[in-house]
Amino acid sequence: MSGKPRVWVSRPTFADIVARLEPYFEVTEEPVEQVFSGAELAARLAGQDAAIVGLKERIGAAEVAAATRLRIVANLGVGYDNLDLAALSAAGIAASNTADVLNESVADYAWAMMLGVARRMNAAERWLREGHWHATEFTAWLGLDMRGRTLGILGMGRIGQAIARRAAGFGMPVIYHNRSRLPAGDERECHAGYVDKERLLRESDFLMLALPLTAQTRHAIGAAELALMKPSAVLVNVARGGVVDDAALASALRQQRLAAAALDVFEGEPLVHPDLLRQDNVLLSPHIASASRDTRRAMTALAVDNVLALFGHGPHAGRPPTILNPHVLAS
Ligand code: 8YV
Predict the structure, then answer these.
(1) If we measure between CA atoms, which residue out of 84, 81, 85, 157 comes closest to residue 324?
(2) 51 pLDDT above the threshold of 60
(3) Is the predicted pLDDT of residue 103 greater than 80, yes or no?
């Protein structure tokens, strides 16, 4: 075995990008996508100096207890609710995410979902594939126009802002709610007006969720919030399962207290609430909002850059570009 430090990559990614680690590290990349138990993760992390992981890998104190050499966990995702940052920091382990490189891709996808559900593309396609198309009735498949409808955004970080910037082209006014109000210049650039959460819920025709999952945002959209929304409104979630109470959402849709939903993320993924699977006014996708070729490559490159940087290599030597707990480096 070489004396090089070791990196574990939890899933197949892009070989040419991961190869940038090879001059400095002994790299073990898992050859197939799989779900690891806590014990399996702990066993794989033990003896590694760095790890590149994805959202399925939930890493906390127990998983790193035996990983005495581990210096960095680089997450393939901007959201990092799978990492217990406090536990990693306490163990002196740096963590990084893939902030920024996926903003535009996720914003494109958010719009694709919004347009797709507004025009019932999923249900219409299914109907066509099932061989029902004999004549197109003039008054069938009627969807919603976007122009003039209010886009509400809950969570106005970089992804929320990228979603907002696209609204001008569709002639949609934008309102938003966020933990903190954006500086005036950013609001102007996004043509977005700040409102409180209740007004956001009451006034949005399309409610787009773009907020991280934290203890504070879990079930940010539950039965009470859904009850405030217009019955004609459409909910779009490209953020995280868990920010929506999926059972409450399924029941609001079933009772037509909400017109439709487009969901890329789910509580308890990859399981999807059975009532959501049954309804035609729900557009579903398997957590792929960042899945363009360029973006997934950029995410991989950024994770690799963070690992290289922590070990003093590459263009950011000594300064992992998207480190989440920089105080770990100082100690
Ligand atoms: C996932 C995401 O990372 O960035 C995030 O937070 O949810 C996605 O980009 C991607 O699906 C890989 O698991």
Answers:
(1) 85
(2) yes
(3) yes
Residue 1's pLDDT band (boundaries 50, 70, 90)?
low
Instruction: Give 330's pLDDT tier (boundaries 50, 70, 90).
Output: confident
Q: What is the pLDDT of residue 135?
A: 85
Fold of 6-101+293-330: Rossmann fold (3.40.50)
| Active-site residue, from 269, 297, 313, 316 | 269
Whether the Cβ atoms of residue 265 and residue 272 lie closer than 8 Å to each other: no
Query: Which atom of ligand 1 lies at the shortest distance from residue 98's CA?
Result: 4
Structure tokens at 22: 């090879």
pLDDT of residue 2: 65
Residue 132 C-alpha to ligand 1 middle, in angstroms?
Answer: 36
Pocket lined around ligand 1, Cβ cut-off 6 Å? 54-55, 76-79, 102, 287, 290
Sorting pLDDT into bands at 50, 70 and 90, what band is 136? confident
d(CA 288, CA 133): 29
Catalytic residue status for 240: yes
Could you tell which of 76, 295, 324 is best to mutate to test the pocket of ligand 1, judged by most ligand atoms within 8 Å of the CB? 76
Q: How far is ligand 1, taken at its centre, from the CA of residue 75, in Å?
A: 9
Alpha-carbon distance 147 to 133, whole Å? 29
Of residues 44, 240, 273, 296, which has the active-site annotation? Answer: 240
Q: Which CATH number fits domain 103-284: 1.10.10.60, 3.90.226.10, 3.40.50.720, 3.40.1280.10?
A: 3.40.50.720
Computed over every residue of the chain, the mean pLDDT equals 97
For residue 309, CA distances in Å to 62, 86, 216, 306 come to 26, 22, 32, 5
Q: Which atom of ligand 1 is closest in space to residue 56's alpha carbon?
A: 13
Distance 78 CA to ligand 1 centre (A): 6
- Of 287, 297, 313, 316, the catalytic one is 287
Domain pair 6-101+293-330 / 103-284, same fold:
yes
